[in-house]
TrEMBL record, chain A:
Localization, UniProt: Bacterial microcompartment
An example Gene Ontology CC term for this record: ethanolamine degradation polyhedral organelle
Name of the protein: Ethanolamine ammonia-lyase small subunit
GO terms for biological process, alphabetical: amino acid metabolic process; ethanolamine catabolic process
Cofactors required: adenosylcob(III)alamin
Keyword Lyase: yes
Chief location category: other
Lyase found in the keyword field: yes
EC number: 4.3.1.7
HAMAP family for this protein: EutC
From TrEMBL, chain B:
Protein's pathway: Amine and polyamine degradation; ethanolamine degradation
Function: Catalyzes the deamination of various vicinal amino-alcohols to oxo compounds. Allows this organism to utilize ethanolamine as the sole source of nitrogen and carbon in the presence of vitamin B12.
TM ranges: none
Cellular compartment(s): Bacterial microcompartment
Cofactor note: Binds between the large and small subunits.
Single GO MF descriptor: ethanolamine ammonia-lyase activity
Binding partners and assembly: The basic unit is a heterodimer which dimerizes to form tetramers. The heterotetramers trimerize; 6 large subunits form a core ring with 6 small subunits projecting outwards.
Protein name: Ethanolamine ammonia-lyase large subunit
HAMAP family: EutB (MF_00861)
Main location: other
An example Gene Ontology CC term for this record: cytosol
Gene3D superfamilies with a match to the protein in the record: Aldolase class I, ethanolamine ammonia-lyase heavy chain domain like, lyase
């Protein structure tokens, strides 16, 4: 059986190239087709990515993981009712439901920073990476003398929902941690977006983004450094977006 | 002008041509997101029936985006060839559809009327066509372009080798190229999406591919898909630019969001052509398009996404491109939700582009949040092969590790060539045989090819 497989799945003599890239090279062929093992590897990776898209926030464990920050926690949702609608209506994912908006309206107002954690396209990503990052961010922000609003956990949300939240809480800066679109080899990639003076209807060029936050990507430590730099600069320059980005590398080393 | 149709005791009225086109479109999420879709199944067919009776001449008088407001509209109308239009000027959209499918309507006739067709006419007729109609007519078209290889000949099927790397590591890119060449991929172009748009990073990749191509005398062309302004700068610095890339869209506003306009594209064409690097032809532009781009830039003016896409082909047509690639499933499920919508859009784009005289290829692809998988791409790839598509992508194992989406693999292209009896570009086919990569029948040979032993020097870049 093994002999048969070896003769079918012709190994190319160039498998040494594999060391230079994570691309799927040197996977061999049977006839002109991808061999069964590699075909199933691919399917498994796609299955993981699909499962990540359909994963949902495990609110209780998330609350437990951020309990030690001693900040109030709010559980909110967008206007989206289910995943199919989420995927088709990004506009609804950017707005809070009426119920959530009412909930927010009751809160104490006027903070420097509001923090949201949202499922985005991979709840798995924030489940795995959000608390670790916040553990690095929150103490530093407090030490800087910044006030932080309640941490808002938001279901079926897009990035811009953070503007809605921050505006309600009258926060000067919105930070949202959100699951990014899963890749075949990165199903747990989290993004952090921040907007200074956030308003409903703020567009993407007003935001700064730190992307690919996950153990196998940008580690929490490095991500936290970048985010803190961006937040400090945003408050210093009273703006966020493309203008901040240019100077970012000056700081990182 | 308003249009009307009565079904039973219900009167459907459509405010204007652009509303009618939108309502007549087969359902896709992007049009629904824009609030342009038909409300019911019946309304959609009512719109299609109404559209079928609209004379083609109406399209020359009623613009979907005003002439004064949009340079793409001006391009479309100013370049309309009334002589070519003459033989079909008495047709309605429905009559055009039937004429396209007639046995006697052959390549010569299609090429003759091409310059007389506007994108809106072509988009309109596609809305009255089933998938098989789109395939049958596209198959009659033939758009041939050349640079160092000849793309688009009957019986040929080419690929863009796409060896992207997340950090532009030259060794990683080179590994992908060598792997692809050993699978007979890359006769349309070796094209890399750079992770960084800095001129230095792009130049490095250009030099890398150029050295490889020269060393092994590969009859193909390279392209780094940087912004057109970066490419112009590199051309002016004497960099080895074969093809100049740019993403384009069907409205002036959407193009503005890409940082381009028609005069920048003209400058790019002239600059790239001036390098004179093509050996058998001087088609130098490589354009990418895709339904939904105008909407996502909030620059669609209430025009449905497929009509916007067809208008992008008017932009492409002006610059005699070597390749046009509709990146059909990249944009995500809020524009094209699932395999069915992606397949339909790909066949529409290929048909519209070909009828307008463009060398159409398709990036048959999907993201992980779309309701699609490899089976859908297999279906689409096979349909595109039958439709006579000029080229598709060749991505290692279908998995683009830089752009994080799935496209067609080196293996996929070989499958298609095998089942449909298609061959690579003739110059490239000869090279594959010379290198011992494939035999005369296109069958891959087992032993590793000559590049393997001679690549040491390439790593030093």
């Amino acid at each position: 059986m093994e002999d048969l497989e070896n003769s079918r799945n012709r190994q190319d003599g160039m498998s040494f190239l594999k060391g230079f890239t994570t691309a799927r090279i040197g996977i061999g062929r049977t006839g002109t087709s991808i061999p069964v093992k590699q075909s199933l590897d691919f399917k498994l990776a796609h299955a993981h990515a699909r499962d990540a898209v359909y994963s949902s926030l495990e609110i209780n464990s998330l609350i437990d993981s951020i309990a030690n920050f001693n900040l109030p926690v709010l559980c909110l949702e967008s206007k989206v009712t289910d995943r199919a609608e989420y995927l088709q209506r990004p506009d609804l994912g950017r707005q809070l439901s009426q119920h959530s908006a009412n909930e927010l309206a009751k809160q104490v107002k006027n903070f420097d920073v509001s923090i949201c954690i949202a499922d985005g396209l991979s709840a798995l990503a924030v489940q795995q990476n959000a608390s670790e990052l916040l553990a690095l961010l929150i103490p530093t922000l407090l030490k800087d003398g910044l006030t932080i609003g309640p941490i808002c956990l938001i279901r079926q949300a897009r990035v811009a929902v953070a503007d809605d939240v921050a505006q309600s809480l009258q926060a000067k800066l919105a930070l949202i941690l959100i699951g990014e679109r899963p890749g075949l080899s990165s199903v747990d990639s989290m993004g952090a977006y921040l907007t200074y003076n956030p308003q409903r209807g703020s567009t993407d060029e007003l935001r700064n983004c730190v992307s690919n936050i996950r153990h196998a990507g940008l580690p929490a430590q490095v991500a936290a450094g970048k985010i803190i730099y961006l937040i400090r600069e945003a408050f210093r320059q009273k703006k966020s977006g493309v203008n901040l980005k240019d100077n970012q590398d000056l700081f990182i080393d | 002008m308003a249009y009307k149709h009565i079904i039973g005791n219900k009167t459907y009225s459509f405010l204007d041509l652009k509303a009618l086109l939108a309502k007549a479109s087969p359902f896709r999420t992007g049009d629904a997101l824009a609030g342009l879709s038909a409300d019911t199944y019946e309304e959609r067919v009512a719109a299609q029936i109404t559209l079928a009776d609209i004379p083609l001449k109406v399209f020359l008088n009623e613009t979907v985006i005003p002439y004064e407001k949009d340079e793409v509209t001006r391009l479309i109308l100013d370049q309309h060839n009334s002589q070519a239009f003459l033989s079909i000027s008495h047709f309605t959209v429905g009559q055009l559809r039937d004429w396209l499918l007639e046995d006697t309507t052959d390549l010569v006739k299609l090429e003759a009327v091409g310059p007389g067709l506007t994108p809106e006419m072509v988009a309109a007729v596609s809305k009255l066509m089933r998938n098989q109609d789109l395939i049958a007519v596209a198959r009659k078209c033939q758009v041939i372009t050349s640079f160092r290889s000849t793309i688009g000949l009957k019986g040929r099927f080419s690929t863009r080798l796409q060896p992207n790397h997340p950090t532009d590591d030259p060794r990683g890119i080179l590994a992908g190229i060598i792997e692809g060449l050993s699978y007979g991929s890359g006769d349309a172009v070796i094209g890399i999406n750079p992770a960084s748009d800095s001129p230095e990073a792009v130049l490095k990749i250009l030099l890398l591919i150029d050295r490889l191509r020269e060393q092994f005398d590969i009859p193909t062309q390279s392209c780094v898909l940087s912004h057109v302004t970066t490419t112009i700068e590199l051309v002016n610095r004497g960099a080895p630019v074969d093809l100049c890339f740019q993403s384009i869209a069907g409205t002036e506003l959407a193009n503005k969001s890409f940082g381009i306009n028609l005069s920048i594209l003209e400058e790019a064409l002239q600059a790239t052509r001036s390098l004179n690097r093509g050996t058998i032809g001087d088609h130098v532009m490589y354009f990418e398009t895709g339904q939904g781009s105008a909407l996502s830039a909030n620059a669609h003016h209430g025009v449905d996404q497929q009509t916007c896409e067809a208008r992008a082909y008017a932009v492409a047509r002006k610059f005699n491109p070597f390749l046009v690639n509709t990146v059909v499933g990249f944009i995500g499920p809020e524009y094209l939700y699932d395999g069915k919508q992606i397949i339909r859009a790909a066949l529409e784009d290929h048909f519209c582009g070909k009828l307008l005289g463009l060398p159409m290829g398709v990036d048959a692809c999907y993201t992980n949040h779309a309701e699609a998988d490899q089976d859908d791409m297999d279906n689409l790839l096979t349909l595109l092969g039958v439709a006579g598509c000029n080229f598709v992508m060749g991505v290692p194992g279908s998995d683009d590790v830089m752009l994080n989406y799935q496209s067609t693999s080196f293996h996929d292209a070989l499958y298609l060539r095998k089942v449909l009896g298609l061959k690579p570009a003739p110059e490239f086919e000869k090279w594959l045989i010379r290198q011992g990569i494939a035999d005369r029948h296109g069958t891959l040979l087992d032993h590793s090819f000559a590049l393997n032993g001679n690549i040491t020097g390439l790593w030093k870049i």
